[in-house]
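Minutes, project huddle
Topic: does the predicted pose make sense with guanosine-5'-monophosphate bound?
PN asked that the exact inputs be recorded in the minutes so nobody has to dig through chat later. Recorded below.
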Amino acid sequence: MDADTSCESPPLLVVISGPSGVGKDSVIDELKKKNRPRHFTVSATTRSPRAGETDGVDYIFLDTETFLEMRNSGQLLESAEYSGRWYGVPRSQVSEALKQGKDVFLKIEVQGAGTIRALAPEAVLIFLAPASFEELAVRLGQRRTEGPEEAARRLEIARQELAQVGRYDYCVVNRDGRLEEAVADIEAIIIAEKCRVAPRRVKLD
Ligand code: 5GP
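Predicted holo structure (tokens), as shared on screen:
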């Protein structure tokens, strides 16, 4: 190998997206356990905390006025309205972690993934999909976090989100009871991306 050729890869910006109820949180929890130089962004939202959620850990919970102030002053890398609530990724978290050489993981819905693609074409976009729409419907129906009306609204949004898979780089299926396979697939994608001869270099400004 040429003396000045380096196989060091720059940090990745990884988007984990997909419909509500598909298991993004469970996948992210497993990716966190790997103890690698990674940052998992904590989004801002205007939705109310669920039982067991902690401000600053699960989300930064804000009132709408504060959220929109952050958004209008450019403090959010992307933001989207989902089921009547705002969600957005604080820009500073992403740029600081990338500067420190950490791979950054965003857990966002489909509109947000589209925004990131436009802002940072070098981001790695992974769509987490259910094995079937029916499996997703059962999972959303069984969740205790939403009432039946909200679950039905999320399922309707999911139908539209599933149609957007073609805009992603990768599709990983999270089958019922087989979380470890989905996590292994994502780790394999990260490894392959890090071994690219022409690495993706994310520029955000
Ligand atoms: P939940 O209310 O279930 O926590 O989140 C609703 C949806 O918003 C999920 O698909 C979740 O991944 C997505 N989401 C969470 N944070 C963000 C964010 O910062 N930006 C965008 N665009 N979506 C987000």
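Observations noted during the meeting:
- The two ends are 33 Å apart (CA to CA).
- Residues 20, 24, 43, 47, 78, 80, 82, 87-89, 107-109, 111-112 surround guanosine-5'-monophosphate (CB under 6 Å).
No decisions taken; revisit at the next huddle.
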